[in-house]
Design a protein that fits this description.
elongated, two-stranded antiparallel sheet, mainly beta
């Protein structure tokens, strides 16, 4: 028993000794290579960077850069691209014992990030990492023997492995297409990324407040197997997007259609799998706001109101494989297709037998049943080609074009 205790004590002393030695090495490396560290990060991102202080971080083990500002692409203005209270670059302990710094991840503390898209559809993030600086400035191309306190950043930093956490961030997305820029602001952003490295099964989880003042109402969970082994368009992924209490009035402003809808959606869940070139997705939407309107139609007045859909998307078009909508006692089944440019949706719909929905029209409530037909919607209105329905017990056939 005494021998076992002695062995445990020796092991603990060795571990503590290694930890202390690693911390001393970290402090020495920071002291000797502060300017080189900042310059190296600047070369990797291809943007000017200013740092208030560079100090050791003991948890997570690494280097903390205080009051960081990362410059914007000059084509998008002179303001900062990123401002953060702190950036912690966590490092791997064992290489640190040998006097080398190898990155394990990056934690952003209270960052404010602005993503901009110009009138041509180009994003300001596209130029990140596009540095015009001479990569051989460190030694004119001559090989040097690695010294004990050398500074090395592994290749994976340049392909995005670094970002592992965001704490209480703000992301502003500005879309400058079609004239005046439209802003979407994500507040109280929390992000956690696992295994974001070449060939690994990467996972990213993001929570943010989009419609609420301070509570998270958006969740995005993305998983990518074998990261980096294919180009972006052909990389397989699975994703889940969940929204609660979404304000459709704000959504209309973001898509430049302020008269599109008003009111709130109780919950929306979107599950997708595939690639950016071809994917399948399922949608579940539940409405519990009686004041919700689509255009001038009081959809929310009919409860319960739900929508489920299954779609397939390619680079050319969107196929609506299945649609099921519930409006009170009326259940609609449908299928169709859609295109993004020009924006157009064509649906063949049919109600289940026996279903009835009470709809308020012009201050009067009427019963709608036995609905069947084809509906085509675009930016200018809705075409009925034709639409059969029973209104207040009277069978009708509607043809024509609805606008306004």
């Amino acid at each position: 028993m005494r021998a076992l205790t002695a062995v445990v004590a020796v092991v603990m002393l060795v571990v503590v000794g290694i930890a202390v030695f690693a911390m001393l090495n970290l402090r020495a490396l920071i002291g000797a290579h502060r300017d080189q560290l900042v310059a190296r990060v600047e070369r990797i991102v291809g943007r000017p960077i200013t740092v208030g202080a560079v100090v050791p971080s003991w948890w997570p083990l690494g280097i903390r850069l205080g009051q960081v500002t990362l410059g914007e692409d000059p084509a998008f203005g002179a303001g900062p691209f990123l401002v953060a209270d702190g950036v912690i670059m966590s490092v791997r302990p064992w290489p640190l014992v040998h006097g080398r710094i190898e990155a394990a991840g990056v934690v952003l503390e209270r960052p404010a990030l602005t993503l901009r898209r110009n009138g041509e559809g180009e994003w300001n993030v596209a130029s990140l990492g596009d540095s015009t600086r001479d990569g051989g400035a460190d030694g004119g191309g001559a090989k040097r023997k690695e010294r004990r306190h050398s500074f090395r950043i592994p290749l994976e930093w340049a392909i995005g492995v670094a970002l592992s956490q965001v704490r209480d961030g703000t992301i502003t997305i500005e879309d400058g297409r079609d004239g005046e820029a439209v802003q979407l602001v994500l507040r109280h952003v929390r992000l956690h990324a696992d295994d974001v490295r070449l060939g690994a099964a990467a996972r990213l989880r993001l929570e943010a407040a989009v419609f609420a003042a301070d509570a998270a109402d958006l969740l995005l969970d993305v998983r990518v197997p074998n990261l980096g082994e294919r180009d972006v368009e052909h990389t397989p992924f699975t994703a889940r997007l969940a929204l609660t209490d979404a304000d459709l009035g704000k959504v209309g402003v973001w898509v430049r259609r302020p008269d599109l809808a008003s009111g709130r959606v109780g919950s929306l869940t979107l599950d997708a799998a595939g690639t950016l070139e071809a994917l399948h997705a399922s949608l579940d939407l539940r409405i519990d706001d009686p004041a919700l309107r689509v255009g001038s139609v009081p959809v929310g007045a009919v409860q319960p109101a739900t929508l489920q859909a299954r779609v397939g998307r390619t680079t050319e078009a969107l196929t609506i494989e299945m649609l099921r909508a519930t409006l009170g006692g009326l259940v609609l089944q449908g299928h169709g297709e859609a295109t993004e440019d020009p924006w157009r949706i064509a649906l063949d719909v049919q109600s289940d037998s026996g279903g009835v929905a009470a709809v308020a029209v012009g201050g009067t409530t009427v019963e709608v049943s036995a609905l069947d037909g084809r509906v085509i919607a675009n930016r200018d209105g809705v075409a009925l080609e034709p639409l059969h329905l029973t209104l207040a017990g009277v069978p009708l056939e509607a043809r024509g074009w609805v606008t306004g």
